[in-house]
Amino acid sequence: MKELVEVIAKALVDNPDEVTVTEVDKEKVLAVKLKVAPSDMGKVIGKSGRIAKAIRTVVSAASTNTKKRVVVDIDED
Predict the structure, then answer these.
(1) What is the pTM of this model?
(2) Which of 14, 31, 68, 72 places its Cα 20 to 30 Å from the Cα of 59?
(3) Which CATH superfamily is domain 2-75 in?
(4) Strand stretches in the chain, DSSP E
(5) Cα–Cα distance between 39 and 27 in angstroms, integer?
(6) Where are the domains of the chain?
């Protein structure tokens, strides 16, 4: 899932070198944390959160074969 989120995020932002994706594997949940440059935050979130929701939907669809629930977190640091 890390690679999928990374490819999607790098296609959206102006500074693809500053995209970092980390995975935190827990028992039944896989947390994917996405961090982008502050200037690209709006491009990843989108108007009313539509792009962020679309990213989460794509990742959710891609994770249907796994037994874990995948959660995508966007860091605003």
Answers:
(1) 0.89
(2) 14
(3) K homology (KH) domain (3.30.300.20)
(4) 20-25, 29-35, 69-75
(5) 34
(6) 2-75
